[in-house]
Specification:
alpha/beta; Rossmann fold; five-stranded parallel beta sheet; globular
Length: 178
C-alpha cells in the first residue's frame, strides 16, 4: 500500500472516503478548521491531500505542509522556498489561504522546533492530520476545528483457519465471525 504522499493525483481522485470526506469538505468550504485523526495506515494523509485537491478546484489556494520536512526555526516562507513546488505537485494548485498540515502531532512533541511556523499559521484556516490528538493543544495552537476520527483500513477479509463443526481437544482454533 502506498503512503499518502506517494499517490498520484489520479490515484487520489479514485479513493472513496465516504461521508467522512463529504463532511470534511463541507466544513472546509465554509471556513472551518478540519482535524483528521487516526492511526498509521488509516488514510489521513490521502484524505488531507484529496481535501486540498478539491478545495483547489473550487478556487481556494491550498498549501501542503509536511511537518517532517520542516527544519528547526523555519517559518512558512522558508518552507515555501524549499517545498513550494512539491506542495503544488501534491495538491494540484498554488499555495495560500488554507494550510494542509500533515503530521500535526509533531507540533506539541517538538514545540520549540516549530515555534516560527506556528506563529505564521495563526489566523489561517487549517486542515490537519494527526496520529495522536490533543484537542486542547490543537485549539490553542490552531483554533477550534471539526474533528474526524479514522479507523485503520482492512486490506483483506479474515478467513476461518479450521473447518467449522469439528471438535479438537487440546487444540486452539481461530474463527472469525462475519
Amino acid at each position: 500500500m502506498k503512503l499518502g504522499e506517494e499517490l498520484s493525483i489520479h490515484e487520489l481522485e479514485k479513493l472513496d472516503f465516504g461521508e467522512d470526506f463529504k463532511l470534511a469538505l463541507s466544513r472546509a468550504i465554509n471556513g472551518a478548521n478540519v482535524y483528521i485523526v487516526g492511526p498509521s495506515g488509516s488514510g489521513k494523509t490521502a484524505m488531507l491531500r484529496k481535501l486540498g485537491l478539491y478545495l483547489t478546484r473550487l478556487g481556494r489556494e491550498a498549501l501542503y505542509v509536511k511537518l517532517e520536512w520542516v527544519k528547526y526555526g523555519w517559518g512558512l516562507s522558508d518552507y515555501l522556498k524549499r517545498y513550494g513546488d512539491k506542495s503544488r505537485e501534491l495538491v494540484g494548485g498554488a499555495a495560500g489561504d488554507i494550510i494542509l498540515l500533515d503530521d500535526g502531532e509533531l507540533l506539541w512533541s517538538y514545540s520549540s522546533v516549530y515555534r516560527n511556523l506556528v506563529r505564521d499559521l495563526r489566523g489561517r484556516q487549517i486542515a490537519a492530520a494527526f496520529r495522536e490528538f490533543d484537542i486542547d493543544t490543537a485549539t490553542i495552537l490552531l483554533g477550534d476545528g471539526f474533528t474526524i476520527y479514522l479507523q485503520t483500513r482492512q486490506t483483506s477479509a479474515h478467513t476461518a483457519k479450521i473447518p467449522l463443526g469439528l471438535s479438537f481437544l487440546g487444540k486452539t482454533a481461530e474463527i472469525t465471525v462475519l
